[in-house]
Structures are given as structure tokens and as C-alpha cells.
Amino acid sequence: MTNEKVTLQRRSLFSQILAAILVNSVYEMNNFPIVLINTVLSPLSFLVVIVFVSHGSLIGEAVAGGFIMSMFSAGVGLQGDLSHLKNDFKLQDMVVSSPTTWQTYMFGMAISEIVYALPALLVLVVLAHYYMHLTAVGALSLVGVLLLMFLTSVAIGFTLSTFSTDIVQSFAFSRLISTLFSTIPPVYYPITYIPFPYRYLAYLSPTTYAAELAQGAAGYVPLTPTSVALDWIILIAVTAALFMVARGKSRWREI
């Protein structure tokens, strides 16, 4: 393959990803600014509640929880957007008939969700600067946790979008999944606040392991090396399993 062909392929890939970002996030943010308020308030509302209830003692944990909720909600939100573009605008039919692969389409749409969540993430970064005391290793660990959370939720959102046939149904799925995984589990506070035996139920959610690692990275929760390794193994395994399901359920021309 010549260098010219490689360059053309790269430009084509970039243009396809850019198109997904423009269609799915920039268009809404530019034409409907109210969506930005919703994006920012969703994670911050729970943060404010936790801070008031704890009299400020859990502000660091709450900021970490805000990061996790933002990334998880962004990925799950992919389900509603994919369903909307597929069922209402028939965009996916046009993409399928083009040279675009399902991996490129999914990657571009996922990046668009990150762009959509940027306002909330920027606010949380400012709060983290003042209230989370992270070392370089801790910061890298937090970024890794958030990346896995996003990938996990993207896989869930992509899979659900293949079953959803209506935008109302899609939004219902998104709200239900976000509630089950980012508000009920101990994301904004340490799991030690949950009494036994209910604590075991919290470990059914992957966000519990993510929150535990994030809180441990910031020094809020003491974790043994064994606990840290187990949390990472579970998160990676769950993410890989969900992507296998997403790959099997995706309806594309190559399948």
C-alpha cells in the first residue's frame, strides 16, 4: 500500500469521526444550549446533596463520583442517540451503505459523547484541583478507571440501541441504566457507609469497583494491593465481556 493511499485512508477515517461529532454533539450543543445545562447539572446535583448531607466531609469522594457518573452517563447516552439517528433519521442505513465500518461509526459516536460531556468534566476538573489531592500515579489511575467506565457504558449503550425501536423507549432505558449503575451504588461515597449484608449487593455493579479504585487513588479509602488488583481485573473483565456482547449484537453488513 502506497503512502498516498494510507494518507487518504487516514483522512477518510478522520472525516468520518468528525462527521459523527458534528452531527451528534456539536449540532445539539449549538442549537439547543439547554442540553448543556442538563449535562452539567446531572452529576453535580448528586455531588451537592452528598456534600450538604456530609457537611463537606465527603466532597472529595463526591467529586470522584461526579467523574464516574459523567463518563458512565455519556456512554449510556450513546444508546439514545444511536437509536434516534437510526430510527428517526435513518442515518445508520446511509452509513451502512458507505465504506464506513461499524468500528469507525461506533468510535466516532463515542467520541461525540465525550465532547457532549465536556462542560461537566471541565467543572469537575476544577473542583478536583481544589478538593482531590492526587499524586501522579493516582491521577493516572483515576483516568484509567474513567476510561474503563466509559468503555463499559459505551458497550451497554451500543447493545441496547440494537433493540430499541423508539426514542421514548431509548430515553427510558438510558435513565434506568444510569440510575441503577451510577446513583444507587456507592459512587459518591465510600462503600463502608453501606451496612452488611447490603454491601454485597453493591458489588453487583461495576461502578462500585470503579468508585473504590478512584477513592483509593485519592487516598480516601485504604485498599490492599490484593483489593486493587481484584478491582482492576473485574473492571477489565466486565468491559471485555460487554464489548463481546456488543460485537455479537451489532447489526452491520460484515456480520
How many strand elements? 0
Regions with pLDDT < 50 over 5+ consecutive residues? none
Rg on CA atoms, Å: 19 Å
Characterize the biggest β-sheet. none
Helix content: over 70%
How many helices? The count is 10
Strand content: under 5%
- Structural class, from helix and strand content? mainly alpha
Distance between the termini: 26 Å
Mean pLDDT: 82
Total of domains: 1
| Element-level helix/strand string | HHHHHHHHHH
Structural write-up:
- The chain has 255 residues and is mainly α.
- The protein has one domain (3-249).
- It contains ten helices and no strands.
- The protein has helices at residues 3-31, 34-53, 59-87, 91-96, 102-131, 136-161, 167-182, 198-202, 206-217, 225-249.
- The model has no long low-confidence stretch (mean pLDDT 82).
Which terms would index this structure?
about 260 residues, mainly alpha
Briefly characterize the structure.
The chain is built from 10 helices and no strands. The chain is mainly α and 255 residues long.
Write the layout of secondary structure elements.
Blueprint (H helix, E strand, L loop, with lengths): L2 H29 L2 H20 L5 H29 L3 H6 L5 H30 L4 H26 L5 H16 L15 H5 L3 H12 L7 H25 L6
Helix pairs in contact: 1-5, 2-3, 2-5, 3-5, 3-6, 3-7, 3-9, 6-9, 6-10, 9-10
